[in-house]
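User: Hi! I'm working on a homework problem where we have to compare a predicted structure to a textbook description. Could you give me the structure for the chain below?
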Amino acid sequence: MNETILIVDDEKNIVDLIEIYARQQGYSTLRAHDGKTGLALADSAAPDLVVLDLMLPGTDGWEV
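Assistant: Happy to help. Predicted structure tokens:
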């Protein structure tokens, strides 16, 4: 499986947990801890799925 999931959340433990389960299922993962970085990664890497927290510092999930 070559699908990639972008996980955007400001809480490291949540990103870690989602990443563990995604990788166990064969997905590649990308991580971002704020909206600005998440947008940049989404633009440059074109992930297959984005898991996005709405309550992010700076650029929130609604703006993303």
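For your comparison, note the following. Helices lie at 12-24, 35-45. Residues 3 and 27 are 6 Å apart (CA to CA). Good luck with the assignment!
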